[in-house]
Amino acid sequence: MKKLNCLTVLLVLLLSVSASAQTGGKVYDNLSVESKILKMERKYAIYLPADYEYSERSYPVLYLLHGGGDDQTGWVQFGEVKHIADKAIADGKSTSMIIVMPDANTGQRGYFNSPKGDWNYEDFFFKELMPHVEKNYRIKGEKRYRAVAGLSMGGGGTLMYAMHHPELFSAACPISAGTGPISEEDAAKRWKKQYPGISDSELKKYYKTHSALELVINMPEEQKGAVRWYIDCGDGDFTYEGNSLLHIAMHKNEIKHEFRIRDGIHNWAYWRSALPEILDFVSQGFHQF
After folding, report:
1. Closest CA to 46 of 19, 25, 68
2. Residues with Cβ within 8 Å of residue 61, at least 6 apart in sequence
3. Helix-strand-coil split of the chain, %, nearest 5
4. Any bridge partners for residue 65, and if so which?
5. Residue range 25-39, pLDDT digits in tens
């Protein structure tokens, strides 16, 4: 009888572990943080790996940025982040990590500070959102365990965040990224419409700090190896030119990076196919060799 009871307990435990493995991680997509900088409540979504609930360990974190027209639910609903992350972790392609997905589509659209200083989303991200999630979840606080990635508008955010704050991110993975203006003339065409009343001096200053090409060309020597870069874009994507020019500029300036041009266009099918590779790439940095 005792032997039978032991077998029963073992079977229950195995079934419990199996059910847990099948359930995988959890996603919460309607969380919020109060922002004094933006004077409003800001939403974000978070993916917690399957073992988060049962462990006491801390985890590396990936900040995953959505594109224009979406919000914090974009990677959850259309990007299938839970399914893809669960599978990558289960297959050993990705380490177990927390994924944070902020909303950059309320009030004004975008991840940057306005040149006029009236909408400082980047300040919110670094001064309020990041401290909030890293205080309230078991996230490792060192640069080595923090990465950023994003698609389209979020790819542009990824470029700027990692270039503005190379001391905070070990890896950056822009997908189909909006790389920003390729010249001051291009900047004037774009930003005089986006920011009515911007002066020529304000535009010039903003260009120097928000054009990925300009930042790469003028990147200080000590910053060149600070971030591991993975750049991915479809060969039929309208962002192809900007991403190709970015690759060439990085190559000429001896900035190490992975560059992928694959068959595809600017859509979710492409971005879903990119996510497993991104999880693999950032995991390589999270591991110790």
Report:
1. 25
2. 97, 98, 99, 100, 133, 134, 139, 140, 145, 146, 147
3. 45, 20, 35
4. 150
5. 999 999 999 999 999
Question: Which candidate, 256, 249, 247, 260, places its Cα nearest to that of 224?
Answer: 256
Angle between helices 268-286 and 81-90 (to 10 degrees): 40
Q: Is residue 1 in some structural domain?
A: no
Question: Structure tokens of 228?
Answer: 């591991």
> Please, what is the Cα angle at 279 between 266 and 180, to 5 degrees?
40
Is the Cβ–Cβ distance between 135 and 98 less than 8 Å?
Answer: no
CATH number at residue 254: 3.40.50.1820
Question: How is residue 96 written in tokens?
Answer: 């177990």
Asked, for residue 226, whether it belongs to a domain, the answer is yes
Phi, psi of 46, rounded to the nearest 5 degrees: -145, 140
Domain count, the chain: 1
Q: Express each pLDDT in 63-78 by its tens digit.
A: 999 999 999 999 999 9
Cα angle, residue 78 at apex, residues 76 and 83 outer, rounded to 5°? 55
* In-domain check, residue 22: no
Nearest residue to 110 via CA among 206, 46, 229, 184: 206
pLDDT at 184 over 50: yes
Bridging pattern class, strands 258-262 and 228-234: parallel
Give the whole-angstrom CA distance, residue 103 versus residue 109: 9
Contact 214, 245 (CB under 8 A): no
* Residue range 127-172, pLDDT digits in tens: 999 999 999 999 999 999 999 999 999 999 999 999 999 999 999 9
Identity of the amino acid at 4:
L
Give yes or no for a contact between 220 and 183, defined as CB atoms under 8 angstroms apart.
no
Structure tokens at 193: 């419409």
Tell me, yes or no, whether 3 lies in a domain. Answer: no
- Domain limits at 96? 27-286
pLDDT tens sequence across 220-264: 999 999 999 999 999 999 999 999 999 999 999 999 999 999 999
